[in-house]
Amino acid sequence: MNVVSDTWAVRHAGDSAGCDPSAHELLNEATQWLQYARGVMSLLADLIHEADGVDCKQVALSMEAIAAMTHLGAERVGQAHAQWHWQAKNSL
Q: What span, in angstroms and rounded, lies between the C-alpha atoms of 79 and 82?
């Protein structure tokens, strides 16, 4: 799987403001980011359990990556929530 081409933000990075993702697309992307974070976290935990020694700098970098992926997922959920409210308000 090509991670770079799987996310809406990367696919549309060069697009103008006229192409906003739907709430559904944002939630799908949030799910992907959170699944990536969970996978990296699980792999890191397994490696630490199996390791004789731990490289603290590498663990810290991995944890920062997990935090970034989690942040992107939460950000997409927030955007989808705001869009959903805006659409509900404008449909009245």
A: 5
Judge contact between 8 and 26, C-beta under 8 A. yes
Of the candidates 22, 29, 27, 23, the residue with the CA atom closest to the CA atom of residue 8: 29
This prediction has a pTM of 0.74
Q: b/e per residue, 1-39, with b = 16+ CB within 10 A?
A: eeeeeebbeeeeeeeeeeeebebebbbbbbebbbebbee
Tokens representing residue 41 in the block: 């976290």
Q: How much is the mean pLDDT over the chain? A: 85
| Residue 46 CA: distances (Å) to CA of 62, 65, 68 | 13, 16, 20
